[in-house]
């Protein structure tokens, strides 16, 4: 089956957020060959609205790797600097609503298992890129996306289909840049989906609950070095600032407004035993099941950072490197998904939202935008037993669910829309 | 000997800083009876320049105790509110310089030993006041002061003698208030002295080195309480501010400019297990063997407090509750002291400054002021073996050194001044 | 109405936990006069199972005040040392189950308002005890308890009635001591109740949800003092230990197992600016909506305290000073309460459990014990508009609800039990 | 002059501690060509006694660079793995004491200036190695060492000369490994020297005071990762351990036993915003002007680390990565150096020890070992005006002092020893 081949091809070449040069060029070419109009590069995203773009040398290295692997140079040129979003647009033969499906392009910085138990290794489609791996299932999503594209290339549907291929979902960094470009502003219905997530093979879940609002922040402190033996008081100790912030941030995680989470995921500073540390860096995330609570946490973090810097006479900067929000799936769309799923043999169990998500997703931003403009959205889960949890070196899906997922999205696309219903 | 009787009487009734109502009235009456002009109450000190004045109820309790013990009500009235400084002034029969001696009035909040080994207990002059004790030797200083007064009451000396009886030396709180009143502005020569300090009986040390500059600070934080279970985020946690300040202040004690010391001596806040703590209080001291380094530490403390308050949205206040500085004894005066000491049988060993002080003294402020206005000063040590260290419940001196000390100060007072020499 | 008079009398004389000497003696005498058998003193509670008993001098002061106010000396003698629990037992004329009602004896350390708006002040039943106040409604509960006693003194009911008057509910300190004495071991049905709690006048709530498991801990650290200027390194700084524990405890409040709360409500240590602090004390509470999560938090606190002490070579102690747990009201009993309430005119709105408690209650321990032994329990809320929130200086209830509450408990007591049902 | 050429050649190729492969092979070859017996590789040092050996890949990269630059492969082979110490031994024609001179082989990880003001750049002997530079003057020392070797190659001296070329002085890492091999066990007199150090061109200082005892420590913490949103309590947070240690270590820097210094130079941990940090690393140094005080600080650090790990259930390791001690120059040797310096025109000012060192030196270990076995040692300073302070990207010496330094060491070597004198 082509969808399985596609999945394995994407699996072999896992590119991390904003460096999906080869992956995106492959998607562009396929969509074009099927008759889609394709937006990409700066036509598909607003560069300034990206969060957490990797350093220049990382972008360049990935660019040259993609070139070497045979990506189309003209396409690459348009993506230079991390412009890897792709949107495929196709008009149906009849008029109808604009329906968007969203798929993610990026992989994770995880070294893939070489265990003989690990099917991608045994069947020889293990990652060719050291320290990178499709360990969340985005390779499967991409394959489903191309699978649907192929099916509906006949234009036997009503309305417009938009296939959104988003970069940098990991770290919730990429969605904003596509929204700011207006990609979903004309969308009436948006359906995002994820494979796995604790839902077993054969089950489909029409919606989801519990995604947390989140903000990811990168903080730097800049002080002054000094010889720790000869003149310690001459230094401005950036680690004192960072550790002071660390402890005070740790105390924020209790809130009567529901679940609140805070983590200092990275703290690092200093250069040598005998130098008062002059630089420090922190990576922080806040989360909450209420958008307002998350915002409150972010404000408290800002104040703690500013005060810690002032305390030790440090310069500082804070950059938002990722952001997602909470959202609610529209009941009507959840029902519609399940209604279509009922016709597909592979789905033996239909659920509204039996599983609560524990993490965050920037699909939230896409869905909220569509809803704010009067449209409808949902986030459904395609069940698949997993060899290991998401983000694990042994992660693997059941490939037999891929055709069912394609079928589902195809059925929805071909639906005879009673627009009034929405 | 009267000087011993005086010492024991003062020892029996030890009053702490700014509450020396009975002690001061006894001093005033004795000086007056000897023909001295006496300044006291608001004539001897600037109330606003006092540091660390006790709370009203403590002042009032001590006032009433002094009243009950039979202190002169008219004198007491003048001292109400903690105006306990006394200055005795006597003109000699001939003209000459103004020579000041300084003695301290205050005792310590220490419960005196009831051991049978402890002579004040055995000889029945132990403290009559619960939890208070002359454990530093100020009782001896006071007796020496009155002893000298009695000797020179004949006016057979050249110039003016000023006997300065300062309140609240403990905590370095009282000297500033007498300086601001101008008490030493006309002084040409000032001699302060201390008994004990590690110098053995029979030895006299004409000067001293090593007193540290110091500042004592009281800090309060004010936040907002909240129910810790129901709405923790509604509180503004004053203990978070105080402990953040605590840790950062602890990191200040290293300086290439010499000895630097910092201590948070008291930290307290909060009321109950289930309330987010809304108040906190800290008592902090800085010390350094350079006045500038001490000042730098104080500035860093201010910045840390302000930043800690800002971090947790607290109000705060900082009050200086004590202050002393470094100083240098004038060589000429050191020599003069030793020159006179040579004539006194009781002093068998004469030293310039063999011992290094480890603490702080607000005599430093008096001596510096005299020196700044062109005068001379020294701080000499009257050796005495001690039964236990200063500030200890078993502290006791050798009373036989008291008459020698009186003799010394008398000889200096009667000196035929070659003013030009100074 | 007598119930209102009783409430006002109790309101006038608010005694805090384990010092309810006058209150308890009043309750004992009233119950006796109505024909109840009464257990009190060490017959009603296990002294060793009390949490957070006040210091000796506080117990003694309250004892003498109660004596002075005219409490029965023989009864007082039995309560000496804080044995203030009371249990009234009455056999009905017919056989039936043992039904317990629980009321709390203790007040709060809050100074009552003297505003003319404050009815207890205007109507002259304001607290006669400085700094103490019935600000939670326990005075009302006591009045209801005596009101019921009076009604059922005719013994026209089936089974046994136990009226449990518990000391020291504030701080969740008293229930355990009555449980350990076996007071509820023969109880088939237990009904606890609380006035107010956000439920309006006229409403009755048959059960409640959401009380949190909690543990209150008192921690002391003992180090060694040293002169902060002369030999700072000789000290063992107890405040360093306590603040280290403080910051690390603050980081515990995030748990995937539901609501988790942690608070350091009190931290205090040190004596003077120039002494390395040698002692420190902390009061800490943990809470969680799962008993297991609360237990996990307590264990983490123990480990943090032990490690902080080891870090600074301190001795330490940890004492549990309060404890409560989670519980579930039995559906059958909730229904029964509402069934009877329906017959009372004053109750215009009946609810199962519309309000979620935000705090903790040691009624939880009583109810759990009854349930563990095969009985049933509930905790109902008697609605009353409040002048100000619980634990506030302006707190006041609507006295008109008191007779309705008495009626309700009377009706339940007189019920014709179908034992089998339970 | 050859000594200047040598200095420039060494300057061009600055290798950091334990990677001085090219430098050492050059030294070995030169010494051999002059007739010295040469110990090197594992004959000159005990591998297990090295501190802070770089990671394998750093050693290998430097090794291959040295190979590429033309170092003798046989010599390189002996040095593989960081065995870069060299000792040249020469017997004089007459019998006499064993005299050792010590020189350092290593450079610093500093990028050298490309300013046109910077003479090494202008005269084209700037570093060829990116990010490495002889910024402390060890290139000059090496040149002096070879210069002396050349002069005394005629053997016209009494006794034995040992030229000790020590690796890894920076970080005080290399001396111990030569001591443990016994290199100085037969030495009667050891003279170490340093150029610059605040002493102006033309001055020579026969001894030095004030080098601090120091210990450098590397600490790692190992906890367990967890998803920060989904199950924060499942993690064991290594950064909590490290920051707790950080703050408590910062509080150690006050000691009545003299100068005490402590610095956490590096703290780093964690991997990503959404993961509870499972690893952390710290680099710490202690210093004191008393060996015992330094040892006390080290013990306190160990206890703080152990307690911080226990607090958060972490595994940890502590490794000593550098060590030096205090020492006293022998008066006799100081005088002897100055006696010889008097004969050298270039030295216009002779001092005993006018400058106080502010740092630490592992020459201290060599000198102490010689003294412990009955020998004598000193550390003299060869004055040189500097273009910028030591360890600065603009650091440069006055090359004209090199021949004077060679002359001095030559004169001392050729001295007619009156052994009895020592």
UniProtKB/TrEMBL annotation, chains A, B, C, D:
<dbReference type="InterPro" id="IPR017439">
    <property type="entry name" value="Amidohydrolase"/>
</dbReference>
<feature type="binding site">
    <location>
        <position position="391"/>
    </location>
    <ligand>
        <name>Mn(2+)</name>
    </ligand>
</feature>
<feature type="binding site">
    <location>
        <position position="170"/>
    </location>
    <ligand>
        <name>Mn(2+)</name>
    </ligand>
</feature>
<dbReference type="InterPro" id="IPR036264">
    <property type="entry name" value="Bact_exopeptidase_dim_dom"/>
</dbReference>
<dbReference type="GO" id="GO:0005737">
    <property type="term" value="C:cytoplasm"/>
</dbReference>
<protein>
    <submittedName>
        <fullName>Aminobenzoyl-glutamate utilization protein A</fullName>
    </submittedName>
</protein>
<dbReference type="InterPro" id="IPR011650">
    <property type="entry name" value="Peptidase_M20_dimer"/>
</dbReference>
<dbReference type="Pfam" id="PF07687">
    <property type="entry name" value="M20_dimer"/>
</dbReference>
<dbReference type="InterPro" id="IPR002933">
    <property type="entry name" value="Peptidase_M20"/>
</dbReference>
<dbReference type="InterPro" id="IPR052030">
    <property type="entry name" value="Peptidase_M20/M20A_hydrolases"/>
</dbReference>
<feature type="binding site">
    <location>
        <position position="136"/>
    </location>
    <ligand>
        <name>Mn(2+)</name>
    </ligand>
</feature>
<dbReference type="Pfam" id="PF01546">
    <property type="entry name" value="Peptidase_M20"/>
</dbReference>
<dbReference type="GO" id="GO:0071713">
    <property type="term" value="F:para-aminobenzoyl-glutamate hydrolase activity"/>
</dbReference>
<feature type="domain" description="Peptidase M20 dimerisation">
    <location>
        <begin position="217"/>
        <end position="307"/>
    </location>
</feature>
<dbReference type="GO" id="GO:0046657">
    <property type="term" value="P:folic acid catabolic process"/>
</dbReference>
<dbReference type="GO" id="GO:0046872">
    <property type="term" value="F:metal ion binding"/>
</dbReference>
<keyword id="KW-0464">Manganese</keyword>
<feature type="binding site">
    <location>
        <position position="138"/>
    </location>
    <ligand>
        <name>Mn(2+)</name>
    </ligand>
</feature>
<keyword id="KW-0479">Metal-binding</keyword>
<feature type="binding site">
    <location>
        <position position="194"/>
    </location>
    <ligand>
        <name>Mn(2+)</name>
    </ligand>
</feature>
<dbReference type="GO" id="GO:0016805">
    <property type="term" value="F:dipeptidase activity"/>
</dbReference>
